[in-house]
Amino acid sequence: MKKTVTTFAKAKAEGEKLTMLTAYDYSTAKLLDEAGIDGLLVGDSLGNVMLGYDDTISVTMEDMIHHCAAVARGAKETLVVCDMPFMSYQTSVEDAVRNAGRLMKEGRAQAVKLEGGVEMADRIKAITDCGIPVMAHIGLTPQSINAFGGFKVQGKSEAQAKKFVEDAEAVQAAGAFAVTFECVPEKLATLVSGKLAIPTIGIGAGAGCDGQILVYADALGMFSDFTPKFVKRFGNIGDAMKEATKAYIDEVKAGTYPTVEHTYKIDDEVIDKLY
Ligand code: KIV
Description:
Strand content: 5-15%
Oligomer: single chain
Distance between the termini: 59 Å
Bound molecules: 3-methyl-2-oxobutanoic acid
Helix content: 40-55%
């Protein structure tokens, strides 16, 4: 059965942990869906993982729509959430609603995610008022990396921790169905998770969140440009890909691939008439 925002609410009510990974293409989405993941995020981390940028700033609406539509085709049972890229919602409430609508209509997402707390609450309310579920994202918000001065843990000082609590309460009050906590101390994330009625999905926020999310290429050992402290490798698909590629190169060079089982036949009399 297709998972929805109701599945997420039920999991929170029943104390069942939620699992999410990112995905950016049809084949990967299909594999992760078949493995039973609860939610797939078409993250703007596709800028790093798929497109080779240093950050998520350059990712466009067209990039997100293109990749989200591919993921949506592969995800039969999983909830598909699509990130709103930088400057697709910060500029105005109207832009936020229009672009969220495009991710749903053209990208076939079931929900959108945007970064920011108190200052983005009006966007979250306006989008949810249109019937589009919103996942919020607070703590370290990578689209604001230039304002933070780098990828730094958030919420450690008293002022930052208070701001984190205010952000969490604001996004819930605005109607978000869930919220991502990125790179905040475990004790803070656990405390706030216990206070909120909506599920909290942690990344670098410890075990006390209602669920976890990772970039799939980090979790499966396929991306090595930068590995944050919170990442655990659950597989070594990158090494497996390199080994399989080397085996292919070796066999083609040695002439042992392709063999008769991989080739198509033609009648000799057709061939004989050619030259
Ligand atoms: O884009 C992304 O991958 C994300 C996760 C880090 C939550 O937003």
